[in-house]
Structure formats: C-alpha cells, structure tokens
Amino acid sequence: MNDVENVKVLLIEDNPGDARLIREMLAEHRGATFDVEWRDDLAKGMKRLADGPVDLVLLDLTLPDSHGFNTFSSVQTTIPRLPIVVLTGLDDETIAVRAVRGGAQDYLVKGKVTGEQLARAIRYAIARKTGEKRPFTLEELKEFDGKDGRPAYVAYSGKVYDISASALWGDGVHSGLHSAGVDLTSDMGNAPHGEEVLLGFRIVGELAKQETLGQMAARKAEKLHLHPILVHFSVAYAIAFPLFNFLYFFTRTTSFEIAAFYMLIAGFATSIFGGLSGVFSWKVTYAGKRNTLFDMKLIYTGLLLAAITASLAWRILEPDILLTAGFQSYAYLALGTAQLPVVTLLGYYGGKIVFS
Ligand code: HEM
Ligand code: HEM
Q1: Pocket around ligand 2: residues whose beta carbon is below 6 Å from it?
Q2: What is each CA distance from 227 to 166, 292, 342, in whole angstroms?
Q3: Total-model pTM
Q4: Which CATH superfamily is domain 6-130 in?
Q5: What is the pLDDT of residues 331-350, one digit of tens each?
C-alpha cells in the first residue's frame, strides 16, 4: 500500500454533474486527502499533464474530442508511468476492460461507485503502478492476498501477476485450495489448466531472487574471514622455508635442512588453501569482478605456487641439493628466497583490497 498523504488527481471528465459528484466524494473521504483538478476534454487534460506531474488520472473515455480506447491510449503513451483509472458508463464496460488489459490500473462504473471504493481504487492504482517491475519478496507478496478488498497477486515462474479482476479468485481464494499472495509455481502442475490462464493478467513485478542454501552458506563462511586466517600459514611457511635453508647453508646443521623441507611441504599445502580461500572470498564478496588488484593477486598466487611446487619437486628428486655449494644449490636457494617478495606482494595487495 502506498501511503501518499496528499494525492494529486487529474480528473478528465466532460459531464459537469459526474465531475462534481466525484470531487465531492473525494473531498468527503476521510483518510488520504485528494487534491482534484478537473479538465473537461482531452486536449485540456493533456495540457495540464504537460504543465506538471500528477499522481493519477481519472479518465472518462468518452470526451468531446476523443472516444473510447483512443482516449486511454493517448494519455498512456504520453506518460506511460502514470497510473490511470478509467471511468465508464454501464454501456462501455468492454472498452474499459480492454483499457485495463492494456495497462490501465482499474476501471470504475460511474454512478455505481461509492466514495470509499473510489478512494481505495485510487490508492491501489498508485500502489500497483509503483509496484510495477519492482522486485517482490515473498514477505511483501503476502500483503496482496485479495482479502478485505486488497489486490490479489500471485507469483508464477518469477513473475507477479495481478489477478484481482478474476471472479475465480474471489476473496483471494481459488478452487477452495489456493490463496493469493504466494508463489504458486509448483502448484500449477496439479491444476486442470496450464500457465496460459495467466496470460490475460497484468504482470506487476518480479519475484525477488531468493538466496539459495549454497549462497547462504558461502556468505556465512565468508563472515568467518577464512582467507585472512588461512593466508597467515602460507605467509609463515614462505618466510620459514628460505630462512631454514640459509641457516643450514651457513651452519651446516642437518636438522635445519630437514626442518626447511617440512616447512616447504607445509607451505605447499597451506598455500593451496590460501589461494583457494582468496578466490572464494573474491567470488563471494566481490562477485568475482576483475580489476588490477585481483589480477595481481591471481598472478602472484600462480607464481607462489609455481615456486613452491618447483622447490618441492626439486628437493624430492635431489634430496642432497644443498649439500654442496655450487650453481645448483644457489639456484635452489634463490628459488626458495623468491617466495618472500611474492608473498609480501600478495599481502600488500590483500591489504589494499581490505583497507581501500
Ligand atoms: C488444483 C488446483 C487448481 C484447480 C482445480 C483450478 C481450477 C481452475 C478452473 C476450473 C479454472 C477455469 C477454467 C480454465 O480457465 O481453464 C481456473 C482458472 C484459472 N486458474 Fe486455476 N486451478 C488450480 C490451480 C491454479 C493455480 C496453481 C494457479 C496459479 C496461479 C491458477 C490460476 C488460475 C487463473 C489465473 C485462472 C483464470 C481465471 C480467470 O480467467 O478469471 N489455478 N482454474
Ligand atoms: C597464497 C596466496 C595468497 C596470500 C598469501 C594472500 C594474502 C592476503 C592477505 C595477507 C590479505 C590481507 C588480509 C587482511 O588484511 O585482513 C589478503 C586479502 C585478500 N585477498 Fe589474498 N592472498 C592470496 C591469494 C589470493 C587470491 C588468489 C585471491 C583471489 C583473487 C585473493 C583475494 C583476496 C581478497 C578478496 C582479500 C580481501 C580480504 C577478504 O575479503 O577476505 N587472495 N590476502
């Protein structure tokens, strides 16, 4: 429901008696106040619309300068966003129905409508028009249950239909089984008819995308800050591995070399998880969008994993690689040491993501 306090209504009606009646009914209505401007032909009405916005048009279809459906389509094509309630006599109800199918929010038969109904039609017309294309959550949809004169909406295949006009959905209940205000996509299979029954009804919005269980789990997991937690292991081992290598190289104490090897294995395992958690965080929090920062992180993660994998393979294939000083051992030391700037840059870009 739209709670417009002061509703600006443009009444386009050629019969002064009808116009007076409508203005009186709206003036007497308690609740929202209606500020009604009256024009007695289409040209004057259109001129008024060009002069400034109104909230709604009450439109008689039979005017001195325009008749029938054309009256409606002239106003609608000029300002498609404007809610229109069609006023009609008993004899031209078919055209009014056509106008509603064509996008008018409602129609009222002159002389048969009470002030209360008129005011309600205006408020709902504005609410419906504002609701168009807006996403409905299941919670919001519930308000349109067709009870107590409220509009009846049903969702089907992601779209929200206004079925208020259907006699088969009186009071928002259909076939004694189905209620308006809910998503009926999965119920259609049990119906004796298919989705074609909805064709004649106006789509007033779309069902907001519901978060899937997987997405919810991912969002919750991301809240635990897996990536910042896991990367500390990777960072620690990327520092420890070259450090122990150097300790061994200068002290020749074998246990340092063995420790370095274990650091390398641990570094390998934790960097894989560090990298994966980074990609996870990037996908969940930043929707996997590309920019230089993320590109750098991907490149340096690739370099880090390449350096660690190469060191590991090398050390496994040649366990004595550091035993003798020579080109090969220096190359092995250099490869290990290269992890330091790479992991530093990963942290640097990570910090930039977090703090900028
Ligand atoms: C067991 C379940 C249902 C039964 C027995 C049932 C029965 C019917 C019948 C007999 C009609 C009129 C004949 C026709 O147009 O084919 C009808 C029309 C319709 N049904 Fe259902 N239906 C069921 C479920 C549903 C569901 C799940 C929807 C979902 C939106 C739905 C929406 C409609 C609509 C929009 C119309 C057209 C109303 C009109 O033209 O005024 N029905 N239904
Ligand atoms: C092993 C490789 C990686 C290391 C060592 C690393 C290191 C870091 C560090 C230290 C932070 C800062 C955390 C903080 O200040 O709270 C960080 C944040 C971040 N990193 Fe990485 N990172 C790595 C791989 C990746 C990858 C591959 C991506 C994906 C492209 C990535 C995406 C992020 C994001 C999105 C943040 C922001 C914090 C968050 O939302 O969790 N990282 N990273």
Answers
A1: 225, 227-228, 231, 234-235, 271, 274-275, 278-279, 281-282, 285-286, 294, 297-298, 301, 304, 343, 346-347, 350-351, 353-354
A2: 54, 19, 17
A3: 0.50
A4: Response regulator (3.40.50.2300)
A5: 999 999 999 999 999 999 99
